Amino acid sequence: MNRGRTGGPVGTTGRNGAVRRRDEEGAFRVARSRAARRLLLAGLLVAAAVVTSGCSLADLPRYGWPLSASVQGEKLQHLWSGMFTAALVVGVIVWGLMFWCFIVYRKRRNSPLYPKQTRENLPVEMVYTAVPFLMVAVIFYFGVTVQNDALKMNPNPDVTVNVTAFKWGWDFGYQGTTVPSGGEVHTIGTSDEVPVLVLPNNKTIEYVLSSKDVVHSFWVPAFDFKRDVFPDPAKNNTDNRFQTTLQHEGAWVGHCAELCGTYHSAMNFEVRSVPDDIYAAYISAREEGLDMSAALTKVGHSHPNCGALCSPTATTTYPLTTNRQSKAPAIVPANVGSNDN
């Protein structure tokens, strides 16, 4: 038998060399795979650091969430933006790992029919089990924290409004006010006039809800909040109070969000957030005995810059027809839509 320089059979030496080359190539691929994983992880960490450095929840995109009129609603928007961003980050990581596996472990020429089979990997399985629980715990913590913050009550609100729902309208009473005939200032909606709830800007407003008949629901979409209105809150064991702080001037439509009868869709109202001086002038005019429209007209004359905020009628909605036999749509007043908010 021919022998090589080492004294061994030539055929054996060739096979050993081929085995060594395969082992070296395998070790190189493993090392390259580990290096790729480290680079991927480092890239993700660097990207996360760049994205989150110097950013606050207010800097995140809104992801379709509308501009909120209240401070409490803005906190909910921050929670939404944070969760949406976190979901995108998790999605990018998962997609990155998927495509990395597709590329690194794709079938190559002269590769075996099946790659190396791994029966179990306890550390990875523990991580895949723990991470979802951790994510749920984080979401639960921030969800409860923001909810408690949004529902937090100031013991000394600046304005307290009694909101009384009835079929099919609203009665807004301002606590602490008086009128010449006795009692508080009230704004009551009718089938011909939408009630306008005038409130001061950047003040804590408390709403005390009750119903005269069936269950209604007080909902202002711009507040990002609604609450059911029950006939007897104490006996029904319901929390009939909540607070908002309106963070900018404007006018917003409100609705009844609980199907309450024939003219449920007609139970609209309007909320206006105005500067302190205009609010004070409006309440003063109401305490003189003027009704809502007359008081707003008077304030508009004394404050020419008030604009649509002093319109004597609602600018975001209008009375709906109560004629059930009518085939024509309700006529939209010219001033509706004059307020861009």
Task: Quickly describe the structure.
This protein is an alpha+beta fold and 341 residues long.
Please state roughly what percent of the residues sit in beta strands, choosing from under 5%, 5-15%, 15-25%, 25-35%, 35-45% or over 45%: 15-25%
SSE ordering: HHHEEEEEEEEEEHH
CATH architectural grouping of the largest domain: Sandwich
Write down the Rg: 34 Å
Distance between the termini: 98 Å
Q: Largest sheet, described in full?
A: 5 strands, mixed
Counted up, domains total: 2
CATH fold-level topology of the largest domain: Immunoglobulin-like
Number of strands: 10
Overall pLDDT confidence = 82
Helix/strand-derived category reads: alpha+beta
Helical segment tally? Answer: 5
Query: What are the segments in which pLDDT stays under 50 over at least 5 consecutive residues?
Result: 1-8
The backbone outline, from C-alpha atoms, is elongated
Q: Which CATH top level class of the largest domain fits?
A: Mainly Beta
Helix content: 25-40%
By CATH's scheme, which homologous superfamily of the largest domain applies?
A: Cupredoxins -  blue copper proteins
